[in-house]
Amino acid sequence: MNLTTKGECPICGYEMEFNWESQDLPHFGEAMMIAGVCSCGFRHSDTLLLSQKEPARYTLAVESSEDLNARVIKSCSGTIRLPEIGVDVEPGPASEAYISNVEGVLDRVEGIVDFATRGAREVGDFEKTARGEEILAIIEALRCGKADITLIIEDPLGNSAIESEKAVRSPLTDEEVASLRTGMVVIDI
Predict the structure, then answer these.
(1) Facing residues of 151 across strands?
(2) Which domains does the chain have, with CATH numbers?
(3) Where do runs of H (alpha helix) occur along the chain?
(4) pTM for this prediction
């Protein structure tokens, strides 16, 4: 299905055109791709997943350099947890789906922690700076094979996964699903 709609540009207020196209994406199922470009240069793109599976949790013990290569499929409704370092990445309204590997997930977390650590250092928050540096050191040790960590993905819409023989898939309870953020508006009919 292809559709074109018009809307107001949030930057300049002029009318812009949005193209909507449905596609079947590997690992994600049916999705609606939305793209729009305004004459002022503003661009908007989004991917809305149209399918939903059973809510699930995937857990992977990352214990070797081979584990860093395990494929990670994170939908826009997936929450990533790294419990040993106290990191939870919850979806928000601008959450994006991606396919990467464990090392790519660590790269993303490292970028966020590095940014927050530099900000804490600039304002003189020594406790947060030290905590950020500790997390960054653990991530570096993981890359060198000198540390282990657990990667968990929880998805109330069931569209995320970890592809590895070592990954353990388990269903989420109704209470666990209710406690997770989806990053989007979900209409339950």
Answers:
(1) 60
(2) 2-49 (2.20.25.420), 56-179 (2.60.120.1040)
(3) 102-122, 126-143, 174-179
(4) 0.76
